[in-house]
Design a protein that fits this description.
single chain, 92 residues, mainly beta, four-stranded antiparallel β-sheet, 1 helix, 53% strand
Length: 92
């Protein structure tokens, strides 16, 4: 998918070409969660230690639009559809 900073024509009023667009990709989003739980030593005397777990959950309602270098350009809803390059610029 390609994205342009201009709407159909740039400041010089020339037609847009493929080089006027940057290449972008869709990528899922994840939420990192840390959870701390208390573990007892076995006896119910209140002694023990805290154990920390870290895990990632995929966010199913949104996705990221990123450039070739992995920089996030936008966060969009899951229903957002990508337009293929050839639909906009037939010569692409």
């Amino acid at each position: 998918m390609l994205v342009s900073d201009a709407n159909y024509r740039d400041v010089e009023s020339r037609a847009l070409v493929a080089d006027d667009f940057i290449r972008v990709h869709e990528q899922p989003l994840y939420c990192k969660t840390k959870e701390k739980t208390f573990q007892t030593w076995g006896a119910d005397n209140g002694e023990g230690y805290y154990e920390e777990q870290e895990y990632e959950n995929m966010i199913t309602t949104h996705k990221a639009i990123i450039d070739d270098e992995g920089n996030i350009i936008s966060i969009v809803g899951q229903g957002y559809n990508v337009v293929h390059n050839g639909d906009i610029i037939p010569d692409y």
